[in-house]
Design brief:
With 228 residues, the protein is α/β, with parallel strands linked by helices. Helices cover 32% and strands 18% of the residues.
Length: 228
């Protein structure tokens, strides 16, 4: 009898489109709906009341405008869809986002002749494997006005729904580039006149590399901050 009750309570599996993934959370789903960076299949919502009800209505309007079918399901089915993550009553089935190649990042107005005269700020991430850490870095980078994020392709976390949620949806509007050879990329940018900087906890950690205080640093050329 107990086993039968458990089977009856188990949420029915929802078939997904081949190659799709499940975004979860209000910010990631709303921003994914507002952009044209993913193919979108279905929006899943939990019936809500109060202040959350207005948010859900806005999501329905966004989905309708994009021609995305809306399905109202219960909380257990939403939990199953995103494997117990904090979904805030919203899940979105969509194609994954991929890293862009550095070739796509190089634009004419960022050439070596002009770059040294511009106040650009790039963030280089080396082997950031934790999706929560990557999401937090993307969220901060977007908020603080970083122009571009480049990550090492090897031993780095892909752009997963967990990263999008941790980034508060910034991943949905912020291009992330990758390279197989981050060291060569940094050397090339340094030769173009960029300042490549990292952080150390104390001067002796620099290993014969010039170390200055944050208060003494002068941003007078394009900068790449390396984290990882």
């Amino acid at each position: 009898s107990k086993a039968r009750t458990r089977l009856e309570r188990k949420p029915l599996p929802i078939e997904r489109a081949k190659g799709s993934e499940i975004l979860f959370g209000i910010a990631p789903c709303s921003l994914a709906l507002s952009q044209s960076r993913r193919d979108l299949f279905r929006l899943f919502l939990k019936q809500s009341s109060g202040s959350r009800r207005l948010v859900m209505s806005e999501l329905v309007l966004q989905a309708t405008a994009r021609g995305v079918p809306v399905h109202h399901i219960n909380r257990r089915e939403l939990d199953a869809l995103c494997r117990g993550q904090v979904h805030q009553g919203v899940c979105l089935e969509a194609t994954p986002l991929r890293f862009k190649s550095l070739e796509e990042a190089e634009k004419p107005d960022l050439g070596p002749e002009e770059a040294p005269n511009r106040q650009l700020l790039w963030l280089a991430l080396e082997q950031i494997q934790d999706p929560m850490n990557l999401g937090a870095l993307l969220r901060s980078a977007y908020f603080l006005g970083v122009d571009r994020v480049v990550t090492s392709r090897r031993n780095s976390c892909p752009l997963t729904p967990t990263v999008s949620k941790a980034s508060s949806g910034a991943m949905e509007v912020f291009d992330v580039y990758s390279t197989d050879d981050l060291r060569s990329f940094l050397k090339a940018k340094s030769a173009e006149g960029w300042e490549v900087v990292g952080t150390v906890s104390k001067p002796e950690d620099g290993e014969n590399i010039p170390v200055i205080s944050c208060s003494e640093f002068r941003w007078n050329k394009p900068v790449i901050i390396v984290i990882g």
